[in-house]
Amino acid sequence: MKVKIAHCADLHIGSKISGLGHRAGVRAAEIKNSFFNIINVCGKENVDVLCISGDFFDDVGILKGDIDEIKSICKNANFKIVISPGNHDPFSADSPYKDAWPENVFIFKNNNLEKIEFDDIKVRVWGAAFKGRYENKSLLKNIAVPKDDFINLGVLHGEIVSSNLCKSSYNPVLIEDIEKSGFDYLALGHIHKRSKIYKSGETFYSYSGNVESSGFNDLGEKGIYLGEISKGFCDLKFIKTCKRSYYIKEINVSGLKNDNEISEKIAVSLAEEFGENYGENIYRVILVGEISDGVLINTQNIKSILESGVFYCNVEDNTEIEIDTENFNHKNDFKGLFIRKMAEKINNQSSEDDKLIYKKALKLGLISFESDVKYNDDN
Ligand SMILES: [Mn+2]
Description:
Number of domains: 2
Bound molecules: manganese (II) ion
Structural class: alpha/beta
Order of helices and strands: EHEHEEEEEEEHEEEEEEHEEHEEHHH
Mean pLDDT: 93
Number of helices: 8
């Protein structure tokens, strides 16, 4: 016997998006749509069970309209959906999990391990719920799965800890308990960075990671694990399901002459690295290199040029000004004087860090000859 499963976690549907300016509203809606995409993928792949390992919602106060939409999408799925509530969506008194859910959706309600048996596919799913924001004790204790021909899956929200001495308020799970569990696969949630598939004893386990990033502290592709499980066998593959990814890219723009040239270089670099659909992603571009004195980089203008083809792109100017000091040696105007003084200061610094500070001061000074200096661009 084998079973085809999908494993996802940490969708955080309903979470507020910060830092994306006018795109925040669209991005918030995409997080819910990303779940609908997962349901579609599972349908196409003929999955038997979709495991959701907690933090399905960002908060129990999720909009009723969103819950109703999620329920109706789940109801139309021709597979089983098993949910283990996490610290963001605990099975608390005010949880939407308390309401009626479609028949193919199974939700764990207690903070001790329980099982659901699916006789039709010979699969037993073990899981538990966070009842509040914290679960200080391990929810994975003292289980012995029956020795029969059922495939045993675990679905849990929690944090793997290396010993009993490690404290965690988020269901501290010991690897030795994973090994003792006898599960064929344990689908974990809580850690947003996807892990590889590990094996301890006869039990395979992993964190599938979150499904849509919400910031530049969480980069790269997101999605689900999907594939077949049978006794002693696990063939899960990562499938990208996210709408967009966050990336931080340093781009060298040395010698370029204006915002249009710089924008072009950025677009070409991003297309080279991320392919023709590069515009779907969310970028922070850091400009580096040396720019001639007299070229004034306007990051807001570059952002605006790029965003005709890219969903969202922050631009940070970290370039240095290349100065032809020879050219200024004989100029007795204020600017010439300033450049000579600063060049002297830069040369006199012994540490690279101090040189950098004076180079930045030189750059800000030179910009101030041409326009207003803003310390923080409005991102
Ligand atoms: Mn969590």
